TrEMBL record:
Species: Streptomyces aureus
Residue intervals of the HTH tetR-type domain: 7-67
Keyword entries, A-Z: DNA-binding
Signal peptide residue numbers: none
Matches recorded under InterPro entries: Homeodomain-like_sf, HTH_TetR
Protein name (database record): TetR/AcrR family transcriptional regulator
Known DNA-binding region: 30-49
Cited Pfam families: TetR_N
Length: 198
């Protein structure tokens, strides 16, 4: 009977995989070079994780500073926004965390995952679907808490999530974070009045 994987070793490997992927990206990620960099073998990685995609997804989910995979952690359930002004503050605070200089080095990886999920939906599609589902679900819950009907809450949540992702993507290409920051505040100026009409 084969020995079960060592949980401590598995966790250590995941931490090191995460740092490797953040530094090197996904585009040319291959198991053998990754295994060499970690001082192990590709067979050992497959033994612990089954597939490369599962390993990457788990490694990213472990990241306590992961900027896009921690939606639920950003909102204390006991302090959910109770009115449009509080929701706006939450969105602005979230934007500040996601666009902070110390987070920007990690964001290109998520753009890569988004692209890879389009090109290889069977491999990375579930990762992006989980991200979008978590963010959208969180905001649907907030909008419902403001008294919106389900259909409208879903539309408002999709609008905010899609806008935030777009505003994070553009400055990764040209470095103009000030433009995206101004665009976010302009968007909120236009959306917040409508949130009062539930």
């Amino acid at each position: 009977m084969p020995r079960p994987p060592d949980p401590a070793k598995r966790r250590d490997l995941l931490n090191r995989v995460r740092e490797y992927v953040i530094r090197n990206g996904l585009a040319d990620l291959s198991l053998r070079p990754l295994a060499r960099a970690l001082g192990t073998s590709d067979r050992m990685l497959l033994y612990y994780f089954g597939t490369k995609e599962r390993m990457v997804a788990e490694a990213l989910a472990l990241d306590e500073r992961r900027p896009l995979l921690r939606a639920r952690d950003l909102l204390d359930p006991t302090a959910s926004p109770k009115n449009p002004a509080e929701l706006r503050r939450f969105v602005e605070q979230t934007w500040q965390q996601l666009s902070a200089p110390n987070m920007r080095a990690r964001l290109p990886l998520y753009l890569e995952i988004m692209t890879a999920s389009l090109l290889h939906p069977d491999r990375y599609g579930p990762v992006m679907r989980d991200v979008l589902t978590e963010w959208t679900g969180l905001l649907i819950s907030v909008f419902r808490g403001l008294g919106m009907a389900e259909a409208r809450a879903r539309t408002e949540a999709a609008l905010l999530v899609d806008a935030l992702f777009g505003l994070l993507t553009a400055p990764l290409a040209d470095g103009d974070w000030d433009r995206s920051d101004a665009a976010l505040h302009t968007l909120l100026d236009r959306l917040e009045p409508g949130w009062h009409n539930t």
